[in-house]
Amino acid sequence: MTKDTKTPSLAEPLTLPCGVTVRNRFYKSAMNEALAGRDCAPTEAHVRLYRAWAQGGAGVLVTGNVMVDRTQLGEPGNVAVEDERDLNMLRRWAAAGTGNGAHCWMQINHPGRQSPITINPHPLAPSTGKVDGDYGRFFAEPTELTCEQIRDIVRRFANTARIAKKAGFTGVEIHAAHGYLINQFLSPLDNRRTDEYGGDIEHRARFLFEVFDAVREAVGPDFPVAVKLNSSDVPIVVKVNARDGVPGGFSEEESIWVMKQLERRGVDLIDISGGTYAKPVIQTNGGAAEDRRRGVYFTDFARRIKGELTVPVALTGGFRNARDMERALDEGITQMIGIARPLALVPDLPNRIIRDRWDGSVELPRVTTGIKPLDKAFGGILVISWFELQMRRIARGLRPDPRIGGMRALLFAFGQHGPAALAPRRRKGRQ
């Protein structure tokens, strides 16, 4: 361990357009905690997990998916908030997440067609058509939303944001990425509507803008509202470049146009991401060796928009050491450093870097069952489940354990997803 006398950029506060200031540049990005019970309510485990992260020193903690409709869940174990029945526990969760000077923002979402068949055989989407790719076996054929249903979902987003504020969360993030409902509206591959919500990007983005405007009205002008947005619908590649998108999908140029419109509407932060379930980016299982080959995600896109936007940006994916984080901040390609999986192994990583001036790297293990066909078929599920197991350990007051194997993660996935988790792998296009 070495120390530097210079105050790191990571320690500098950031004032958002709404006037709120966050204490440093660590932005704990959303991960699905899978800690809710069958009633979709937050639990004591959420309280303990977020208390640990708040004590760990991050400036902003973003929760995992909180769904706006209990009948439309994105993953087993999702919290759903559609009324005030769980307000007391939400208040305890928010109080824990805002301890030690941290902000805690609720990520609000609707899965659209990405609602697993094991928990929802009747998903909704902008248009009909199943999820493509290796994950397609987990999802049922969706029903196309009516305009009345679209307006109801807009209302639900606003209502969930209102409850989040009432409970004591200090911001919300609207999830418009990763192939969930808002991203489905943005994508011309998923959205084949011919009404006012389909066609060119101005019409495909209408749903997002209506959701944002309704949320802003519900929480007021001085409450942080962030949007998580794909740079494009990016597939897995060793070096992620936003131009390597899905042919015909939501493009880099369209993403920039949407960001500019959100900036005009008063968004406080844009969380850059990429990929969908059909073409995932971040949920790979190569571990530290792959991290070193690939580096930080979406840097080419972040450099491109550097002169296009004035709204703060959070860049998430691939940050493993303080040197890369400081370089990204000093170059001005991001204003917040998005961290997710490393915080499931090192919950106090911000404190180590800012307070203790730690200059090491977080080495993520390669998650493997030791059986190549299983790894090939369930690589993404293994990774998701492995990190959910680590978060459960933190919530129980235990230290993360990087020695946990992939087979244990697979068994956990089976418990979470049911028999569909172990279904035979199907070829793309044959779901």
From TrEMBL:
Record-linked Pfam families: Oxidored_FMN
Keyword Oxidoreductase listed: yes
Record-annotated membrane-spanning stretches: none
Keyword annotations: Flavoprotein, Oxidoreductase
Gene3D superfamilies: Aldolase class I
Domain named NADH:flavin oxidoreductase/NADH oxidase N-terminal: residues: 10-357
Domain of life of the organism encoding this protein: Bacteria
Protein name per the record: NADH:flavin oxidoreductase/NADH oxidase family protein
Highest classification ranks of the organism: Bacteria, Bacillati, Actinomycetota, Actinomycetes, Bifidobacteriales
